[in-house]
Amino acid sequence: MSITNIKEKRSWQEVVKTVKTLNPQKLEIIKATLPIVKDHGEQITKHFYKRMFKQHPELLNIFNQTHQITGHQPKALADAVYGAAANIEDFSQIMPILERIGEKHRSLQIKPEHYPIVGENLLGAIKEVLGDAATPEIIDAWADAYGVIADVFIRMENNMYKTAETMPGGWAGYRNFVVEKKVKESDVITSFYLKPQDGKEIASYIPGQYITVKLEIPGEQYTHLRQYSLSNRPGQNYYRISVKREDPKVDNIPAGIVSTFLHAHVKRGRYDSDYCTCR
User: Is the pTM of this model over 0.70?
Assistant: First the structure.
C-alpha cells in the first residue's frame, strides 16, 4: 500500500512577502472581469477539466473522478480561482485557504511541471466559455494573474515537500505500508492498521491530519488516490485509518471504488504488489 507523507502545517508568511505583482493596467482588467468570471466559474472549470483530461489523460491518475461526477471538484476550483484572483494584491487575507489547497496538492504529488498544463487549459477554457467577451487583453491579464498565483503555490509546496522529507520519520513521494491488522468497526466502517514495509520510523502528526492511499486496482485503467484521516492517537509505531464504505447513491453516483476495494480485497499481514505500486 502506498501512502504519501503526513501533511504538516507551515506558514505562508515568507512566501506572501515576496509575491510577484501585476502591472496596474492588468490588475484593473482582473478587477473588472472578476464578476463575469465568477458568474461563469463552474461552467469554466467543468470545461477546463474536460479539456485538460482530453489533452493529458495521464492526469486521470491524480484526480478523483467521483468528484468530477458529483461536481465537487469543479466547484472547488471555481471558488479557488475566484478567491485567489480577488485577493491577488494581498494573499495574506486568504492564507488558511491557500494553505489547505497547498497541502492537498502535496498529498496528490502535484509538482511544478503540472502548473503550466493547468494554466494553458484554464485560460483556454475561459476563452472558449466566454467567447468574444474574452479579448486578447483579458486573456493576457489572466495569464499573468495565473502566473502570480502558480508561483506562490509552487514555492510554498516546495517548502512543504522538503519539510515532509527531512522531518524525523519522513519520506519523499510514496512509501509502502503493510496492513498489520484489519478491524471491522461496524457494517460500513473498517479500520486498517498500517506499518511501513521497510520497518523504519514513521513521521508523527497532530489530530486531524491525513494520509493519501495510492492503489492500483485490478480492472481499473487509472491509479486511485484517496485521503483518509488518521484515527489513532499520535506517537504509535503505526498509522490507523478508519474507512467508511461508500455504497451506491442516487443521481447516478456510483459506489466508492477505493473504499469498496479496501473493505473487500485488502487483507491483513502483507503488502500485495498486485494491488498497489509506489513511487
Answer: yes
